[in-house]
């Protein structure tokens, strides 16, 4: 489903919320309906609006949960698997019958399901919410805090994680309890999807399936990038100036995600102009009026729940009055997307990039 919301002058980063499309002039495919990815029309099947900077209003998108497509049925892992993880720790995995994937993005769990080992997954973090895993016990509390007792109660035979969830003492406690813990790179980008997939597969003793899944995902990303190029301006100077705002209003947390955060590569891959490289934002920096005015964004990207937590666009403008002095604020130009997808950079990357590109340059198609 899709809905466009408006208010008074506003500027907010949002997350991807309702996604039901109407073609609105989009090219049609078989049966008169445009081809879609996760419910969003393909960029190659829509037309870019004449002046993307003239579009006003918030776009709230929620990508459809596409079914998991395992590359194998009942795979037989090669065990024991001995790997050197991202922290340089040598880990021996002798049993993958009770796998617990943990990261802030929900990426690792989806990869494991796509590898064909979903039946072995015994629990989930809050970001892992796709239908196939929804019935597994939750082992995070207060959002993204690991609960050692809940994890140990599940008796995992191996944990696949990164450094995005904490407290880290919980991971150390699990290791001390004798649970093999494979730490994966926490960096996420369209360019390291294959490496990320391979690291997970190696740790679970299915390296060949990791190569197959990585190649499949990379091919889909390449096709999506080609599709996106049909609506994205060739000149970087004419692309929409875009920033990513992370907000949790209840906790008073407001961050601009810049260079090396993953958000910069997301924006670039979706066809936007990443302002962080111009103004020198690195990593995650507290948002403020001065930074927003300096950035002069045309569009702000956020997470759905983040935008909701600050009271919507009106709440954001109240928190950052200077937003009204930017094109994004004056036009209320915010694109919001599912919290668990927008920065996940896993097998759903093609769907995320396509949705953002269409929202930026062909918003009338949503």
Question: Would you kindly provide a written description of the structure presented here, covering whatever features stand out?
Answer:
With 366 residues, the chain is an alpha/beta fold. Helix content is 29%, strand content 17%. It has helices at residues 107-114, 148-153, 168-176, 193-203, 207-228, 263-269, 276-279, 289-295, 304-309, 312-319, 327-330, 349-361; strands at 2-5, 36-37, 40-41, 58-61, 81-84, 90-93, 99-102, 140-141, 145-146, 158-161, 181-183, 241-248, 253-257, 273-274, 284-286, 299-303, 334-337. Strands 1, 4, 12, 13, 14, 15, 16 and 17 form an eight-stranded mixed sheet that branches. α3 (168-176) links the parallel β10 and β11. It is globular and about 55 Å long. Mean pLDDT is 88; it is low at 1-31.
